[in-house]
Amino acid sequence: MQAQVTRMLKDPRANSLVENFALSWLNLDELEQVEPDDKSFNTNMRQNFETEIRLFLSSVLLENRSVLDLINADWTFVNESLARQYSVPGVLGPQFRRVTLQNENRWGPAG
């Protein structure tokens, strides 16, 4: 059974688990309606947050990780802009990559 689960999670169709289930389950499909008070928040930052959330959920769900990672993971996915927002040093460029978060206040995911 474990082999079948692993095979199914590797199938590209498994992304629907993130897009059609997890985002709705966590009400993240309504994220675009949130308007933060922070004046530096813009369309690019919103897209960065959405990409981070999708990559994080994909990692937890499709890599068969513990559901507890949704609460206490010490890692997330950032590009240079989000890294600057989260004070994560050493991240350059627009591509997202997985980083370990040193600040415990940012764990699970980088809240």
Brief characterization of the structure:
Helix content is 46%, strand content 7%.
Question: What are the defining features of this structure?
Answer:
111 residues; mainly alpha; two-stranded antiparallel ribbon; 46% helix
Describe the protein:
Helix 2 crosses helix 3. This protein has a two-stranded antiparallel sheet. With 111 residues, the protein is mainly alpha-helical.
Write the layout of secondary structure elements.
Layout: H1 2-10, H2 15-25, H3 43-62, H4 69-72, E1 75-78, H5 80-86, E2 97-100
Antiparallel strand pairs: 1-2
Helix pairs in contact: 2-3
Number of DSSP helical runs? 5
Name the strands of the widest sheet in spatial order: 1-2
Extract low-pLDDT stretches.
none
Outline type = globular
The SS-based structural class is mainly alpha
The description of the largest β-sheet is: 2 strands, antiparallel
Radius of gyration: 15 Å
